[in-house]
Amino acid sequence: MRKPSPLFWTLSLLALLGAQGQAPGAGEVQVVGPYALPPTPIRALNPHLGEAEVQEALRRGWPVADRPAIGSGLAYLGGGRFLGLTDRGPNGDCPGGKFFPLPRFAPALVPFRLDEAGRAIRLEAPLLLRTPGGSPLTGLPNREGEDIPFAAADCKEKLPLDPSGVDTEDLAVLPGGKGYLLVEENSPSLLYVDPRGRLLVRYTPEGVRFPARYPVRDILPKVLALRRNNRGLENLALSGDGKTAWAILQSPIGSTRDPAYDASLVARAVRLDVSDPERVRVTGMYLVPFSDPKDYPKPNRPRDMKYSAATWVDGEKILLLERAEGGARVYLVDFAQATDLLAHPKGASPELDKAGTDYAALGIRLAPRRLLLETWRFPAFDTDKLEGLALLEDGRTLAIVDDNDFAITGKEGPSRVWLVRLAEGLR
Fold first, then answer.
1. Is 57 in a helix, a strand, or coil?
2. How far from each other are the two terminal CA atoms of the chain, in whole angstroms?
3. Distance, CA of 35 to CA of 102 (rounded, Å)
4. What is the count of structural domains for the chain?
């Protein structure tokens, strides 16, 4: 029997379910979904956790333990399979920090399929992130000055910092079975993980060093260390040959107490040579603009703008998912037409990121963008917390996944995936 081609899976996911229609002004864009993750015990993602730990987490203020979040990042594996990503695990807000009711939770890669008949997400065996010695990692903060970790929702008992902890936010699959690249926002970092889930090396901004249980190399541009708290590296795109990666901050750098930074509407992006993932090199740095907050259907300020997912398209082009209150936009971004700040005399200066900077006078061109999708035009999208993006093999279909924050308030629904067929192909 002939094996179905990868494209078969793309087309069948759309054709068998049928599109939910087009919104006014949406052109030929069609949306299918959402697909939802059925109630799933947290131990399905983290088998090393004991049932007693889960029950203790519920006593500490986590309302439910069966709505895990698998949508901090997304990759398409082909043949109808996807790879989701958790972040640091269940956590809620505290003054000056976060509470972690399940502190031994290990961030994990989560393969899954979409059930066409039941509109459901069907998980496969998770791959936990581990030290080179095989111990599960945690998602706890690394250093003083980051979020203060607390044990419970009462925000009283402090937890110890974990220099090896990672808050993973996006991923890419290296070709040839080499493993995975991930970005995270604790420090912020790029991670190289082998096929067994072992973190082999972590790349941080210059001067950001700490005694982790794996190698840490501070080779990323120093300016990335000025990222806002809990707004680190959130986006990662990898070229098809696995040699070049782009990593982008979630938000502008600088303190929002400074009006010039608070009004900033640019994010830093870096291009990386990842041909040898154990010896990554920085090969470019750019500025990417955000939308005017007024373009969104709900009130937003510049500080509310975020880039939350990325995927490679072709050449130096990637897709970026921008979001704010009221919805999300997907843009095609072309770094080939942007100024490489590594070659600019002021490229390393955080002064470039301030609102009101005259880029033309400085000879700097921001990465140009082309709008492809506005989610609020489609009733199927009822959330703006979209954090994972993948482009399927037809070059026209997107998969978008949300992040339900492990239902930390109890009001969030399950993890969900949408399929979007664009009006035009991108490859």
1. helix
2. 30
3. 27
4. 1
